[in-house]
Amino acid sequence: NGPMNKMALLSKFPSNVKDYTVSMFCDFQDGQVVVSVKTHLSDEMKKSLEENKVFKDKFDTEILKYFPKTSYITVAGAVNVLGYYNLMTQNLGNFNAHKDQIDQIFKNNFGMSLQEALGEFSGEMVFDVQDIKFVQGNRTYHRKYNKSGDKSSMQESQKTVLIPKPLVSFGIQFNNDKFYKILMEKFGGMFQKKEDYYALTLGKSNLFFNLFDKTLIITNDPDFLKNIAAGDLKIRSLKNSEVARKLNKYPFYATINLNVDNYPKDFKTFLDERAGDHADALFRMLSVYDKVEYVAKTHYDWEMVVKLKDHKTNSLKTLISSIDDNIPSH
């Protein structure tokens, strides 16, 4: 009668959550920390997920050719879109109650049902932070000071500081260009057509996008789309990288570059402004890390690996030494 059972009952999802357990293991190896997570489901829940797999069995790495080999963050996965849809329709009663209405809206606007529209998506998606630019901006500071006696007031001041601007791209792969063309026919008037891309202004932000073969690329960096159109990424792309090799084996993979030496010089200046007197100690603590990887081996097995620069020393010893050397004991 707990909240999880009530929620499962409401959603019509297999509600035997008593047999649902999670095992987590942390292994401090030489040069890396490996955290393994394994979920143990009831037979009923496992059967439902096996019939409607959330992840595809194989990631089509063709989408990776549009992303640079070197980046700061990469998240990629292959979702079984129709399997996810079937899981919802079979187990979410609230969704089924409005399914006909939703399908009618899609047919009126796109000439196809929601299921047919979702069937146009291949399922491969990539999120990538390929660069970080720093621009000057004003930061407002508020400081409380005594005016007279017990009375106090707030003083406001502004300082010119560096503001990070991550250059971000997102890719979605279609089975063909049919649904994209329908979307452009319906909403194309909202966008400004450029030579190599379309532009959309949202408040103070700008988004740029274009379809390359069957892959829709959305970004805040128009030069990124120009480079793709010019074919500049054919050799130095993610398709020829460790990311592609991982995705050839697993349906989901993410990595974050933790090596501060690989970041722009202005990154240290930015942290100096935020960390103040603790900036040097912070950089020394960060300097032991190389990258973190997160992979879904199956629907039930996940693994996170924190890789350190020192490959020979036990990772626990390295981390403890880093803390002891940089955090005062008093």
The helix-strand sequence is HEEHEHHHHEEHEEEEHHEHHEEH
What is the helix content?
Answer: 25-40%
Note the beta-strand portion. Answer: 35-45%
The largest beta-sheet arranges its strands as 1-2-12-11-10-3-4-5-9-8-7-6
Jot down its keywords.
330 residues; alpha+beta; twelve-stranded antiparallel β-sheet; 12 helices; globular
Give a nutshell description of this structure.
With 330 residues, the protein is an alpha+beta fold.
Secondary-structure map with pairings?
Elements: H1 3-11, E1 21-29, E2 32-40, H2 43-51, E3 73-78, H3 81-91, H4 93-97, H5 99-110, H6 114-118, E4 121-148, E5 151-174, H7 178-187, E6 192-193, E7 198-202, E8 205-212, E9 215-219, H8 222-229, H9 242-247, E10 252-257, H10 265-275, H11 279-286, E11 289-296, E12 301-308, H12 315-326
Antiparallel strand pairs: 1-2, 2-12, 3-4, 3-10, 4-5, 5-9, 6-7, 7-8, 8-9, 10-11, 11-12
Helix pairs in contact: 10-11, 11-12
Characterization of this structure:
The structure is a single chain. This protein is an alpha+beta fold. Helix content is 32%, strand content 36%. It is globular and about 65 Å long. Strands 1-2-12-11-10-3-4-5-9-8-7-6 form a twelve-stranded antiparallel sheet. Helix 10 (265-275) crosses helix 11 and helix 11 runs antiparallel to helix 12 (315-326). The chain has twelve helices and twelve strands. It has helices at 3-11, 43-51, 81-91, 93-97, 99-110, 114-118, 178-187, 222-229, 242-247, 265-275, 279-286, 315-326; strands at 21-29, 32-40, 73-78, 121-148, 151-174, 192-193, 198-202, 205-212, 215-219, 252-257, 289-296, 301-308. The model is unreliable at 1-13 (pLDDT under 50).
